[in-house]
Amino acid sequence: MTKTANQTTPANRGLAKTPTGIQGLDEITGGGLPRGRPTLVCGSAGCGKTLLAMEFLVRGITQFGEPGVFMAFEETAAELTQNVRSLGFDLDDLIEQKKLAIDFVRVERNEIEETGEYDLEGLFVRLNYAIDSVGAKRVVLDTLETLFSGLSNAAILRGELRRLFRWLKDKGVTAVITAERGDGTLTRHGLEEYVSDCVILLDHRVTDQVSTRRLRIVKYRGTTHGTNEYPFLIDEDGISVLPVTSLGLQHEVSNERISSGIPRLDSMLGGEGYYRSSTVLVSGTAGSGKTSLAAHFAIAACQRGERCLYFSFEESPGQLLRNMRSIGIDLAPWVAQGLLHFHSSRAAIHGLEMHLATIHKLVRDFQPRVVIMDPVGCLTAVGTRRDADVMLTRLIDFLKMQEITALLTSLTSGDESLEQTNTDISSLVDTWLLLRDLELGGERNRVINVLKSRGMAHSNQLREFLLTNQGVELQDVFLGAEGVLTGSARMVRESTEKAASLLRRQEVELKQRERVLKREALEARIIVLQKEFEAEEEVAKRDIDQEQSREETHRQDRDRMGISRQGDKVLQDVEPPIRNHKPPRSRT
Amino acid sequence: MSTPTKRAKSTGQDILPGANGEEETWELRLYIAGQTPRSVAAFANAKRLCEEHLPGRYKIEVIDLLLNPQLAAGDQIVAIPTLVRKLPEPLRRIVGDLSNTERALVGLQLRPAKPGN
Q1: CB A129 to CB B99 under 8 A?
Q2: Strands A112-114 and A138-142
Q3: In a domain, A567, yes or no
Q4: Is B77 within 8 Å of A126 when comparing Cβ atoms?
Q5: Are residues A473 and A496 in the same domain?
Q6: Where are the domains of chain B?
């Protein structure tokens, strides 16, 4: 019966698990805590042990219908109830429903005198009574080691604790035992010795005045589990562990292309824009238009009806809206429609892991198709460069696995080489747009180019762009001796070219007109010649006719003379046609 | 409810210098879990101590938690056996089988802790 329920994946077959219901923890443990066995949760003071244990119980009751017992050694039931009320857990209600039993065990050294042999049967009796009163499947002992401070006979305690864990197993309850972390050991009194199935270590570290909570599965017998340290958050929804387990490259690829929001930029990117679920990096110096480019992309996503999550680490939402409106990009309607969501926070308020966890949680809650992070570079200010890179890798992988298109902006400082500064993350991104200021002729002009774009034929052209009242506009390309022309140089060239082309056009028109004239003249001459010829032809024809009629007249005269002379013979000399012509007459 | 109560009448002798001037009945509770040799020994030891030091003005209530588990939480019982001094105040808990008489007396505050009255 123990092995029938709750096998999440084939890999875990054979070890039944009890889901904790805590976000992320079940993913790391591959389904939850070992069912019917004790799990040790250790950590130093204030790292969230009690909360984790309590959430395990409450979620068990509310989500999985498994009643629970909380045996508290440090806090009273009233204190516990008050502490977790801020997380939305109403313990009083659960107790009233007979789903939860809280037993506060107070062991005060100064009230207790030890005289001779004893055991902890009283604890067993109480636990057993509490379990039976609600039919508990889950048990929490928080913090069991308090016993060591109340009772001095360690030998007895150890023996009894061993018996307690055995007893819990026999009872078939899934137990969470919390323990304080010791010096160099997992727990102060070596409880890990008795709990051999699953040990979870919580940690609360402060680096550079920034605190981060982390969780690690130290051991989990008989199952695979994530071995890393995972950051976790405690917020109004309880604990959420960040299961960025795999720095994996198994995400689905999409052939779908989505617009960058700027038509001429799309055409630079093989004519169709970015790939869906790719990662786009927009890097550039201060004021080079990174945010404007990001805003265009956000608008484009909203216009497609997709949700867009905008993380701003430098500007408040209000400031961002105002500034974008100044270049004709009105984001407010999309915010009102719920398609666009801003999350503004200073990078320095959290550690990197907390940022990652926050992003993770927001992405889960909001379910966006597009995520914008503006700018990611300031995260390096929080942790070390390496940490920031690891975090970005995790983030990018996470977003890719969710099939979310990400646009990251990155600030490069003026004195560094533009392409050098970003080499660390550049290998992670699919499309990299480089914005820069070109200083030429006493002015600075913005120029964009596609540094790389995986999987598409992209333009190699540097393009000047302007921030106009209608947003970002890419300009026509004019090449000069020293490269692409920008600003007034471009405008000068533009007008020169315009003038030159006008001139050429006029010349062409002139030539065309000349040609027409020539043709017309030629045609006129042809007509004249034709007329002359016709006239001559007429004359010639007339002469011929005259000649012929003269000949006829002459022949008729001769015939008549012949007839009158009766000398037919003379006519023998005349040409046959004429003779043939006349035989009937000659016969008559 | 099997709460075998031992009650002894006061003999009128005040043998305890540290005790209150007037005679006071001590209320003791012995928590056990089943009739184990240890709990039997604890009861015997408790009775012996009381007979020696509180003749006739003590009351021992034995509570078997196997029969009344719900009573364990009320007196914060963890270890078995535990002898609880309900009266006189303040409440004291003595865990173990009371085989160490010295410590049991200290625990019950029957040994004069304060010199003089």
Answers
A1: no
A2: unpaired
A3: yes
A4: yes
A5: no
A6: 25-108
Q: Cβ contacts (< 8 Å) between B38 and chain A: which residues?
A: 117-119
| pLDDT tens-digit profile, chain B (117 residues) | 444 444 444 344 444 444 444 567 888 999 998 888 988 999 999 899 888 888 888 889 999 999 988 888 888 888 889 999 888 878 888 888 888 888 888 888 776 544 443
* A35: CB partners within 8 A, 6+ apart: A2, A5, A6, A15, A16, A17, A18, A174
DSSP state of A481: T
Query: B93 near A115, Cβ under 8 Å?
Result: no
Last residue of a domain, one of A477, A512, A532: A477
**Strand order through the sheet with A229-235:** A100-104, A68-72, A138-142, A174-180, A38-43, A198-207, A210-220, A229-235, A238-241
Over residues A189-247, the pLDDT tens digits come to: 777 777 778 899 998 887 766 677 888 888 888 877 777 788 787 877 788 877 654 55
Q: Is the peptide bond before B88 cis (omega within 30 degrees of 0)?
A: yes
Tokens of A315: 């500007």
Alpha-carbon distance A119 to nearest alpha carbon in chain B (angstroms): 5
Q: Which CATH superfamily is domain B25-108 in?
A: Glutaredoxin (3.40.30.10)
Pairwise CA distance, residues A224 & A527, whole Å: 102
Is A247 part of any domain?
Answer: no
Range of the domain at A73: 10-241
Contacts of A150 in chain B (CB under 8 A): 78
What was the ipTM of the complex prediction?
Answer: 0.78
Q: Are residues A544 and A567 in the same domain?
A: yes
Number of domains forming the structure of chain A: 3
What is the DSSP secondary-structure string of A453-476? ETTS------EEEEEETTEEEEPP
Contacts of A117 in chain B (CB under 8 A): 38, 96-97, 99
The enclosing domain of A317 has a CATH number of: 3.40.50.300
Kindly state whether residue A582 falls inside one of the protein's structural domains: no
In a domain, A412, yes or no: yes
A120 CB neighbours in chain B (<8 A) are 78-80
> What residues of A are in the B interface, CB distance below 8 Å?
103, 105-107, 111-126, 128-129, 147, 150-151
Q: Is the peptide bond before B90 cis (omega within 30 degrees of 0)?
A: yes
Query: CA of A147: which chain B residue's CA is closest?
Result: B78
Same domain, A471 and A517: no
The 3-state DSSP class for residue A330 equals: coil
Q: Of A241, A273, A290, which marks where a domain is finished?
A: A241
